[in-house]
Amino acid sequence: MARMGSSRHLKRLAAPEFWPILRKEATWTVKPRCGPHPADRSLPLLIVVRDILGYAKTSREARKLIAEGHFRVDGRVRRDYKFPVGLMDVLEIVDTGEYFRVVPVPVKVMALVPISREEASFKLCRIENKVTLKGGRIQLSLHDGKNVEVAPDEAGRYSAMSVVKISIPEYEIRGYIPLERGALSTVISGVNVGRVGRVMEISGGARHYRKLVRLEDVVAGGTFYTSLDKVFVVGAERPEVTLPVTAGGEER
Q: Which H or E element spans position 64?
């Protein structure tokens, strides 16, 4: 894991390993600004535009395109080239009408996969915490920094580490996928990153990172284990979002 520190600058050698940049081409790279995703689990918008999508050859060109408002993240124009783009975010190219979603993939950790306009109207967000606000209102804290309020009489159905399907850009709850036996999930970090499996068993533990989850791999077969904090539910019977592979092992 990269150590970002408190400096405003970041050397290329200290950047996260999954960033698609040449380490010895230059000394410095862009550091993600504080935002919806941790710095070591996100990509600055500039690197997405220049190094992944290839819309610019230089940092200067990428910064100009971003400042002109050609890119939307989760339905909102982002003009900050340091804005962190992370897991399940939807990226829209305004001029071309292209849509991409950030998903976990083996080895590369995170990648952008093309999606349809219909699928770009929502995203999946993992519930990290559930708190009670003043007046008895219930707030769900999501993995991408968003907070969504739900009615007190509906709060009981939502649980931490489960997933809600929210609309873009309104950020309203459209659906709920609980973390339970048989739920289709993907691994978002660690040696098993990008693998897709069905939850078979969840062991007890005081913290999420201490709980062990056994999953049945729906692509390669067999079972594997990971900690609960690395599990992200993507559907009940089939994935709600486009992944590099499906439950049948075919590319989407």
A: helix 59-67
The CATH number of 10-105 is 3.10.290.10
How far apart, in whole angstroms, are the C-alpha atoms of residue 166 and residue 153? 19
- Taking alpha carbons only, the member of 190, 237, 197, 196 closest to residue 216 is 197
CATH architecture entry for 120-177? Beta Barrel (2.40)
What residue spans define the domains of the chain? 10-105, 120-177, 184-235
* CA dihedral over 179, 183, 189, 192, signed as positive or negative: positive
CB 199 within 8 A of CB 235: no
Element (H, E) at 46: helix 45-47
Task: Say how many C-beta atoms besides its own lie within 10 A of residue 185's C-beta.
Answer: 24
pLDDT in tens, 4-23: 556 788 999 999 999 999 99
pTM attached to this predicted model: 0.90
